[in-house]
Design a protein that fits this description.
Number of helices of chain B: 16
CATH superfamily of the largest domain in chain B: Aconitase, domain 3
Function (chain A): Catalyzes the isomerization between 2-isopropylmalate and 3-isopropylmalate, via the formation of 2-isopropylmaleate.
Distance between the termini of chain B: 43 Å
Strand content of chain A: 15-25%
Low-confidence stretches of chain B: none
Mean pLDDT of chain A: 96
Number of strands of chain A: 7
CATH architecture of the largest domain in chain B: 2-Layer Sandwich
CATH topology of chain A: Aconitase, domain 4
Helix content of chain B: 25-40%
Mean pLDDT of chain B: 97
Subunit structure (chain A): Heterodimer of LeuC and LeuD.
Shape of chain A: globular
Largest sheet of chain A: 7 strands, mixed
Radius of gyration of chain B: 21 Å
Oligomer: heterodimer
Number of strands of chain B: 19
Shape of chain B: globular
Low-confidence stretches of chain A: none
Catalytic activity (chain A): (2R,3S)-3-isopropylmalate = (2S)-2-isopropylmalate
Protein name (chain A): 3-isopropylmalate dehydratase small subunit
Radius of gyration of chain A: 18 Å
Structural class of chain A: alpha/beta
Distance between the termini of chain A: 34 Å
EC number (chain A): 4.2.1.33
CATH architecture of chain A: Alpha-Beta Barrel
């Protein structure tokens, strides 16, 4: 996993609640046996119509959001299927940070395992950023070490993240290698 | 005397391998179920790092998401074929038992686990699939994981988990005639929402839960994830024990009796406390039909689609109605359907098929409707055929298929076309779930069967006598 210390990027506002992983990456793209190349299929049926043409009514297709790397969305982001293809698609597309008032549990874990920083933030603040990014360019800078998000006016907001998740992201640690430090305990458990 | 404990705390405590302040606990995993879609990248990760599968004997694989439900010998989808071939090669290489497409134990992973007796009370069970919560019906702690976690469990037979909060969903009273486990769980999600379970493991209690068969309990626990819960479970009782007696992976004789005693001792202690508790009254629940694009968007069959002036998230509701091609305030029974799907890890077990068959027996599927039945496992299919259920379905105009996930997520050829409208016994009505542009209405097997005959939703309670 790539380490993530800080990230500055353009915000893409996805003003929808309960965005499920079927929308993030539809099932027809789950047959691949690789981890890479899913970005082109991100939000596929929201981005493209039945003829494969870009839908004008879906804002991610607006050139104003080209290069966006921070996704801000409504409550319960990533609900539904456990498919890790969802964070793979987000990351491959270029999203490094996802900010929402709440996340589905499995998605939250899956994101962290792939070096995406999911930030749970109060709904009022999320709504404010959603509105702002819909009206004009919003660039945010996230500094994980100090758990802060700063906009270009210098306004700084802090966020919460469990310390062990933070440590792992900052260092890009591989979970399995960490666990294998406890292998004797696994062996002992099995002998019980 | 020890403080009374919930079954959740009991199972958790028995599985802690390592614990330290400020970190999640490292939990031992007793059973890891694997399927073709969420595992290839995990095996690839093991290979890249020169790692082995720690306990192939606690791992069991099958093929379900992609498998065709007809013409299995001449599969056309090359990418899906490769994914299944990859699973076979991985299972061979790492020594994992596999029920492949031609195997008599093949079926939906959450159907075959219980059927084989791999699923047992007190076990920790994971699978790279969110509907792993199904196994909680047996009093197991069972939850879905992502592919990185699949790799982690393959390599270490353990997983880091934050201790969940506990949530008691208490069901007062009993369900009325014609009202099923499916209606109960849909009503729970409609009442409390699609995220009320987030961060929690739910335990279902109450008279209606006790009176459910194991099949019904599996239907309820299956959809815990649609309420956002990490897992859902039910304390084991005699119903649980009786179901498991004689299953292939369960010991027999005295060893079984001892095991059964230990299972029963897992049940939540009298007076144990949960972090949260919600109550629903079973006798007020009608057969349910979902109208929108998440499982919480659901109303009684006698109801209507929402009134936009009366809802909190107006934009979301308007979007859902638009996607579904429905008006506000539209009576549910006025909705015409053109597809019916009876199957999925929620409702594809023998009793589901029996109940649906009893509704369609001697009747014909409406001429505008294409209806398919997909049994949850090869073994269920055989048993159903022994009972003549296939004949009943086929004579009524249903297609009778091989076992798999099928039209629940439409990864294979079983797809609802754009704009098509399906009465489905599955678990998710997300946009495009059953096919791009397809519209899904979640219902019980009985409701799906009656809709197939009438071509629109009807209240199954007035439709015909329902077997108890």
């Amino acid at each position: 996993m790539q380490a993530l210390q800080e990230h500055e990027g353009l915000v893409y506002p996805l003003n929808r609640t309960n965005v499920d992983t079927d929308q993030i990456i539809p099932k027809q793209f789950l047959k691949r046996i690789e981890r890479t190349g899913f970005g082109q299929f991100l939000f596929y049926h929201w981005r493209y119509d039945d003829d494969g043409l870009k839908r004008q009514d879906f804002s991610l297709n607006d050139p104003a959001y080209d290069g966006a790397s921070i996704l801000v969305a409504g409550e319960n982001f990533g609900c539904g299927s456990s498919r890790e293809h969802a964070p793979w698609a987000l990351l491959d597309y270029g999203f490094q940070v996802v900010i929402a008032p709440s996340f589905a549990d499995i998605f939250y874990n899956n994101a962290l395992k792939n070096g995406i920083l999911p930030i749970q933030m109060e709904k009022d603040q999320v709504d404010a950023w959603l509105a702002q990014a819909q009206q004009s360019e919003l660039v945010l800078k996230v500094v994980l070490e100090e758990q802060s998000i700063t906009d270009r006016t210098g306004k700084k907001i802090s966020f919460e993240i469990p310390s062990y998740h933070k440590k792992k992201l900052l260092n890009g640690w591989d979970d399995i290698a960490l666990t294998l430090h406890h292998e004797e305990k696994i062996v002992a458990f099995e002998k019980q | 005397m020890d403080k009374p404990k919930t079954i959740i705390e009991k199972i958790w405590q028995k599985h802690i391998v390592h614990q330290e302040e400020g970190r999640p606990d490292l939990l031992y995993i007793d059973l890891h179920l694997v399927h073709e879609v969420t595992s290839p990248q995990a095996f690839e990760g093991l290979r890249l790092n020169g790692r082995k599968v720690r306990r192939p004997d606690l791992t069991y694989a099958t093929m379900d998401h992609n498998v065709p439900t007809k013409n299995r010998d001449s599969m056309k989808d090359e990418i899906a074929k490769k994914q299944m071939q990859t699973l076979k090669e991985n299972c061979d290489a790492f020594g994992i038992p596999l029920a492949d497409m031609q195997h008599p134990d093949q079926g939906i992973v959450h159907v075959i686990g219980p059927q084989l007796g791999l699923t047992q009370p007190g076990k920790t069970i994971v699978c790279g699939d969110s509907h792993t919560s199904t196994h909680g019906a047996f009093g197991a702690l069972a939850f879905g994981i992502g592919t990185s976690e699949v790799e982690h469990v393959l390599a270490t037979q353990s997983i880091w988990q934050e201790k969940p909060k506990t949530l008691n969903v208490h069901v007062e009273g009993d369900l009325g005639p014609g009202v099923t486990a499916k209606d109960l769980i849909l009503a729970i999600i409609a009442k409390f929402g699609v995220r009320f379970g987030t961060g929690h493991v739910m335990e279902y209690t109450g008279e209606a839960i006790r009176n459910l068969s194991m099949e019904g309990r599996m239907t309820v626990c299956n959809m815990s994830i649609e309420a956002g819960a990490r897992a859902g479970l039910i304390s084991p009782d005699e119903t649980t024990v009786n179901f498991l007696r004689g299953k292939e992976y369960v010991p027999d004789g005295e060893a079984f009796d001892q095991l059964a005693d230990s299972w029963l001792a897992l049940a939540t202690d009298e007076g144990a406390e949960y972090d949260h508790r919600v109550v629903i009254h079973a006798d007020e629940i009608e057969p349910q039909v979902s109208w929108g694009t998440n499982p919480g968007m659901c109303v009684p069959v006698s109801g209507k689609t929402p009134d936009l002036t009366q809802v909190e998230y107006k934009e979301d509701v308007a979007r859902a109605l638009d996607y579904m091609g429905l008006e506000e305030n539209q009576p549910i029974t006025s909705i015409n359907i053109d597809h019916v799907f009876i199957g999925s890890c929620t409702n594809s077990r023998l009793s589901d098929l029996q109940k649906a068959a009893s509704i369609v027996a001697g009747k014909k599927v409406s001429e505008n409707v294409r209806a398919i039945v997909v049994p949850g496992s090869f073994s269920i299919k055989l048993q159903a055929e022994k009972e003549g259920l296939d004949t009943i379905f086929k004579e009524a105009g249903f297609e009778w298929r091989e076992a798999g996930c099928s039209m629940c997520l439409a990864m294979n050829d079983d797809v609802v076309p754009p704009g098509g409208r399906c009465a489905s016994t599955s678990n998710r009505n997300f946009e495009g779930r059953q096919g791009n542009g397809a519209r899904t209405h979640l219902v019980s097997p009985e409701m799906a069967a009656a809709a197939a005959i009438e071509g629109h939703f009807v209240d199954v309670r007035n439709y015909t006598s329902v077997p108890s």
